[in-house]
Amino acid sequence: MNKELLGRGAVILAIVGLFAFAAFPLDQKIKRGLDLSGGIHLVLEVVTEDALRAETDTDIGRLTREMEDNGITGLIGESTGDSSFLLRGLNASNDGALRDVVRDFLPNWTYSRNADGVSFSRRDAADSEIRESAVNQAVQTIRNRIDEFGVAEPVIARQGLGTNRIVVQLPGVDDPERVKDTIKSTAFLEFRLVDANGGPFDSRQALLAMYGGSLPPDVEIFEEDVRDETTGVVLDTLYYGLEARSMITGRDLKDARPSLGEFNAPVVSFSLGADSAARFGELTSSNIGRAMAIVLDGKVQSAPVIRGRITDQGQISGSFTQQEVDDLSLVLRSGALPAEIKYLEERTVGPSLGQDSIEQGLQAGMWGVILVVCTMLLVYKLTGVNAVIALAFNFILVFGALAYFGATLTLPGVAGLILTIGMAVDANVLVFERIREELRAGKTVKAAVASGFANALSSVLDANITTLIAAVFLFQFGTGPIRGFAVTLSIGILASVFTAIINSRFLFDVILNRKGRVENLSI
What we know:
Shape: elongated
Radius of gyration: 35 Å
Number of strands: 19
Number of helices: 16
Distance between the termini: 23 Å
Helix content: 40-55%
Structural class: alpha+beta
Oligomer: single chain
Strand content: 15-25%
């Protein structure tokens, strides 16, 4: 064998060896999609109006605080919509101070004075930015929570650019209900002072009676479910009057971990950042003897009395089970969702169904390989061995490429692999038929092989490039499963061209360069 052939053979073996190294072992290198491994598929919608309302409430608080710092007190801000509010109690003589505060701290708001007070409205561009930020934050928060569960290869992404929908695919989940509850939990944590007349009371009417039938503007009603410590069943409901202003929120937390509290009850231990700890220490030291409610997602979990200064460490207690404490710690660490999450679509794929898909796909692939091999050997005799070797190399290249690019194998991807079995020898058929024609025309074996490859090249490229173009369009405009099929098909096409033109020609050249003239070709 001459040096040129040895060089070509070394390159081909190196390429195939590299792809084989990337592909094997298959069960570790090739990731399975949801339809093969089982799991859940969710389409979620972020209620971005919640984020707008939360930002409005924050800006109302910021405005009143800054006005107080300017010596203007007694102002009351009332939300009148997702992106609007009314400021009462401001004299016209203080409009100059209001203008300065809005310019420095609320640049996204416009305002005008009317008979009721000063009406504020947020700009449309700011609303769009808040909505976009809420969806992006929800994606990141959900990803953080899923990562805590250790789910392998989750898919968490927006469903199209500019939408408020999120697609979540979690393969191999053992407890889908727990995962769904954890994803959906807003986990908005607040520490609020209980008003001096705020109870707790056994009924909402009793609480309102303490205030003469109507609540002051700076007090809000919250409920606490009293549960049986053993069964967790709700036995009663208590009502609190809490100050509208939050002392600390979940955004101030630095960490949250499961722990044990009094009588070994499950609690959540938390720590605060430096700035939040200083602020919390100042608030608690000036309110010793008062009750402080721990509010989670609008429900009071507990309302202990402040016994001393609290700075950077604390506990969240309530009628929690150990799993609830674990999940609450998880969602607090990952951050609160900026808005409510709604489930629009849910599909659960059982592991057994995924395994059935794998087995049926393997059977289809096995029969496809057997029929292709038998056909090539029957029609092309010993030359068909060339096509069988090309088929084997093709599979190595396809799986190696899938592993290298980190592609996920789905059921449509398996269909693409099975289609590749037939396409892997399609180019060989074109070449072999041209070689047959050249032999029938009276050419020598060597000349027939050379002419066969040269004349079939345009047909091989034409057939595969047109199919590749179709696969590219499928990938560009298709959804997840269609994209999986397109990726597998594209890789199979490129591998087929390589094995048919490069590998097959090399094997023919090895035979034709043996000592002595080759008079006959088993084709």
